[in-house]
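Now for our target.
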Amino acid sequence: MAGNSLRILCLHGYGQNADVFRESLGGFRRFVKHHANCSFLSAPHPLESDNNLEKAEGRAWWFKKDEKEEIVYRGFEESVLAIEKHVQSCGPFDGILGFSQGATMVGLLCGLQQQKKLNFDFKFAMLFAGFCSRSQAHQEIYKEQISLPSLHVFGETDKIIPVEQGEKLASFFLNPTILRHKGGHHVPSSGTQKDVYRDAYRQFLDAFASSPFSDWSSKHLKPSKL
């Protein structure tokens, strides 16, 4: 944490990029601006454009391939390296946030961190509309329960990622904070949801070992500030 502000690395969903996700996260960013600084990273893999400008600017953390009755996520390892490079050049970060495919990426990173297989780490995770990886190669990552403090958010009317998939991903975390909202495939930021975010931030801060976090929390996590 630097300058009395939590630093959060944000990973976008499939077909988005850093700029698109930053814009779509406007309501959430306004809510956390008093106590968090969000850094956005574009995935390293561009979508096939087919002369479509929107697709040409879209990115993915991996592409799902079916190979001999086995699901493979092509490009995952390259994405981990891209995130590591970003952390080295722009970090460190206190927490990591992901949406949709980005949330699945966050879940996998948390699992790798739990198994001490990452060259970087985070103190908390926020996963919006996430799901479990279907790649057989990734199932080992889910075998050890993840102790990292986490918040999991999913929409009851999400037509892309059903609630059950988000719940399954959350089950791999120890004592996860869960928020179900009435909306669809997006990051919500209404009044009642802000209360959950506020409580989650307090839990994240309480998990930090150094005392300055507690002093900072009492100043910056008051309802009037959020």
Remarks:
- Confidence is low (pLDDT under 50) at residues 210-226.
- The first helix runs from residue 18 to 24.
